[in-house]
Amino acid sequence: MTMGLGGLGPETDLLLSEPEGGVVYSEGSSFRLALRSFMENRLAIAGAVILVFFVLFSFVGPFVYHSNQSAGDLLQAHLPPRQGHPLGTDTSGFDELGRMMKGGQTALEIGLLSALIATVVGTLWGAIAGLAGGVVDGILMRIVDIGLSIPTLFIILILADRYNATVLSFALVIGLNQWLAPARLVRGEVLTLRVRDYVSAARAMGASRTRLISRHLIPNALGVVIVNVTFQIADAILYTSVVGFLGFGLNYPNVDWGDQLSDGVDQLLNGYWWLIYPVGACLILTVMAFNFIGDALRDAIDVRLRKR
Amino acid sequence: MTSYLIRRVASAVIVVLGVMAATFLMLHAVFPSPAKVVLGARTTPQAIAAFNRDNGFDRSVGAQFLTYVNHTIHGNFGYSYKLNQSVNSLFKENAGRSALLSGVSLVLAVVIAVPLGIAQAVKRNSLFDYVATGTSFTLYSMPIFFVSLLLIAILSLKLNWFPFEASQASTVIGVIKQPRSMVLPVVSLTIVSVASFSRYLRSSALDNLAQDYIKVARAKGLSERSVLYRHLVRNSSLPIITLVGLSLPDLLAGNLITEEVFNFHGLGLLFFAALGNEDYSILLAYTLVGGILVVLGNLVADIALSMTDPRIRLT
Fold first, then answer.
1. Chain A: nearest CA to B142, how far in angstroms?
2. Is the Cβ pair A157, B275 closer than 8 Å?
3. Do residue B19 and residue A238 have CB atoms under 8 angstroms apart?
4. Sign of the Cα pseudo-torsion (A144, A148, A150, A152, in order)
5. Is A286:A107 a contact under the CB 8 Å cutoff?
6. 10 Å Cβ neighbour count for A28?
7. Cα B204 from Cα A35, distance rounded (Å)
8. Percentage of residues of chain B with pLDDT beyond 90
């Protein structure tokens, strides 16, 4: 761009402000790039706002809105929304709004816990398979194939029948059925990353195995894993609600939205709408929030889609 | 192609054996013996021991597994102590109705999702696309039982168009003769699959629209109509083959939930009742059937894809 600046006339300003290779911003780390792309996505912001709302609703709500959730009052059952019970009461006489808050705690806790369990197990499994290769890889991935062939809901129902006492045991049941997808994902990622030029370059410069894994493989595979976590949280919340709806959900005193909905279904013929629509809306919005965030994160991390 | 087929089938057989081992071990850990269920809560330890000895539940897990594999290979799926009937005869009674529900829903889902997804891609970022994407995103975030519930609340209780219980006929023909009662179960199961299929189809069609062959087709003066039908639709609908294969576990799970919600007597409702009764043989058999269906589905999908897409060469 050094030659011919004088003769270009009115276009000079433009050329000066925009060099041939496009504008080069100092954009900082790839994390900041991803963050910017995420913030520019309106659905992602909507998802994040919905999520923050439900976290506050479930965990802070009970401190603001007091209701008796340890003992139901059967004389107060099936009350429509009114003073003191803004969303009415359920079959056992519990205040519906307060119950929804407790259900929200369960959904978010199980979602997060089981996604963490699945991600840790799956990432390790996939990374070992991808790095080891050969026979170890073959055996580990056949085990994943077997797991993926068994319809997850069947296994979750069978296990939940026995291990539904606490949030932790229930999260284990779901998490240990969800690690297969991340295992496959991480293995694939490791296999492609291993042969990238920058990894070969690092190896040629004498980088140790530990350094290759910690500095090059993990940071680059992390994006895929994080995106997957958000979708897994959404799935886990859906599974929890399905199992709860079918009557194999968490034991008393835990509350889950699926269980609340199955109570509502029994009252559908009576037209007790307040037992269904508010809870259903909470469930759908929460799952949708995680899906929105996941989609946006995927777009933010995918370099090919990034605007240059 | 032949060597690929042999390897692919061999690996499918290994996976099925693995599914058998995994489900057997898991169910064995959860329900070691049906003695308590069969003999009742007030039975004695002696009676339990005698029952276990008579029925072979006192043997080692490995020995029991071998018997199970041997029986299964010979087509014997075990005996339901609770219902006093062989699992084979129970499955024979119920499988037809489940296959009808799932099959009709799957076909409908494909027939609706393929044109919908492609139309969304062609008219991308239009009002139609936004509405369709929004709807499928909402449905995608909904558990299937809630879809059924909304359908019942609106179409059955409010408008009284369809009954809220599925047909109770005992034969497949009997069920077909009561189509009104099957509308809501079929629609719930279809809607959920359409939501996920159409999302994939839309992005597949978008990828194809950006390809050079579409530009070439337009550049050589083909009408937009034949560009769409002759080129785009054919190439964009290929992923549906893989998608159907991969969606079988979800279809089976959806089938289970739909049968429970609409009280439709099929394999799902049988499984569900078995869960409550700790009826081990039925749980084991249906989980295995599910696993085999999934493995077969993926196998058939792989082969079908290679036959329809000449770019995929199997070696």
1. 6
2. yes
3. no
4. positive
5. yes
6. 10
7. 27
8. 1
- Where residue B213 falls (left for φ over 0; alpha for ψ -120 to 50; beta otherwise) is alpha
- DSSP string spanning B234-254? HHHTTHHHHHHHHTHHHHHHH
Give dist(CA B228, CA B122) in Å, integer.
9
pTM metric for this prediction: 0.84
Residues 6 or more apart whose Cβ sits within 8 Å of residue A5: A12, A15, A16
Q: Give the gyration radius of chain B's Cα atoms.
A: 24
A90, A149 contact by CB (below 8 A): no
Amino acid identity, position A200: S
In whole angstroms, give the CA distance from residue B211 to residue A231. Answer: 30
Euclidean distance between the first and the last CA atom of chain A, given in angstroms as a whole number:
21
Q: Tokens in use for A219?
A: 């940071």
Here the tokens at position A257 are 């939205």
- The mean pLDDT value for B191-213 works out to 84
| Whether A150 and B23 lie within 8 Å, measured CB to CB | yes
Distance, CA of B27 to CA of A158 (rounded, Å) = 8
Confidence (pLDDT) at B315: 59
User: Which structure tokens are listed for A174?
Assistant: 């779901």
**Tens digits of residue pLDDT in B120-130:** 888 877 888 88
- Give Cβ neighbours of residue B283 (< 8 Å, ≥ 6 apart): A154, A158, B27, B31, B271, B274, B275
- The string over B178-214, giving b where at least 16 C-beta atoms fall within 10 Å of a residue's C-beta and e elsewhere, is eeebbbbbbbbbbbbbbbbbbbbbbebbbebbeeeeb
Instruction: Give the largest CA-CA distance in chain A.
Output: 91
Residues in chain A predicted with pLDDT less than 50, given as ranges, are 1-18, 305-308
- DSSP letters, A21-53, are T--------HHHHHHHHHHT-HHHHHHHHHHHH
Task: Determine the residue of chain A that is closest to B18 in CA distance.
Answer: A146
Beta bridge partners, B79, equal B86
Residues 6 or more apart whose Cβ sits within 8 Å of residue A198: A216
Q: What average pLDDT does range B217-238 have in this prediction?
A: 81
What's the pLDDT at B101?
A: 86
- Mutation for testing the A interface, residue in B14, B15, B144, B156 having most A CBs under 10 Å: B15
Look at the block and give the residue holding tokens 């006489």. Answer: A93
Rounded to whole angstroms, how far apart are CA atoms B209 and B228? 9
Say yes or no: B165 contacts chain A, CB-CB below 8 A: no
Could you tell me which of B245, B299, B256 has the C-alpha nearest to residue B101?
A: B256
The conformation of residue A8, written as its DSSP 8-state character, comes to G
Contact A142 B18 (CB under 8 A): yes
Please give the Cα distance from A130 to B99 (Å, whole number): 39
How does A184-200 read in b/e, with b if 16+ C-beta sit within 10 Å? bbbbebbeebbeeeebe
- The structure tokens 């600046």 sit at A5
Q: Using CA atoms, how far apart are residues A44 and A237, in angstroms rounded to an integer?
A: 19
Sign of the dihedral defined by the CA atoms of residues B243, B245, B249, B250, in that order: positive
